[in-house]
Design brief:
mainly alpha, Helix Hairpins, about 140 residues
Length: about 140
Amino acid sequence: MLKVILAALVLTALTVIIHAMGTVAASRRTNRLWNARKDERRFLGAELIVARLVSTLLLLHLAEAVVWALFFELVGVLPSLEAAAYFSLTSYTTVGYGDLVLPQPWRLLGPLEAAVGVLMLGWSTGVLVAVLGKIYGQVG
């Protein structure tokens, strides 16, 4: 069980690093785009900037789930990379269909990935709230 917890901590650290770097870069880029266009009242200008941010955040979540999937593939607990990616995404998003499960010694990683996913999705929500507050606080 110790190796599972250590694996979860390493995977969590990698997930947090990816998310931190990605959200900082995406937020800075969004601020630059907004500041460059704030005097222009383009049709859907703010919405397109927000759509770009949301797309970036979704790609970050995908990358984070893929890190977990690559680990599952590396240790050989799932039959293929496709299966590992599927399991990882359903765990990360807390969908958890249950049609694919990890072997008994590793099964704790599923719920731990779900907990990390909830935290990362919450983090992204916080980023969106901050950016939307700035953009829509200045529009109108």
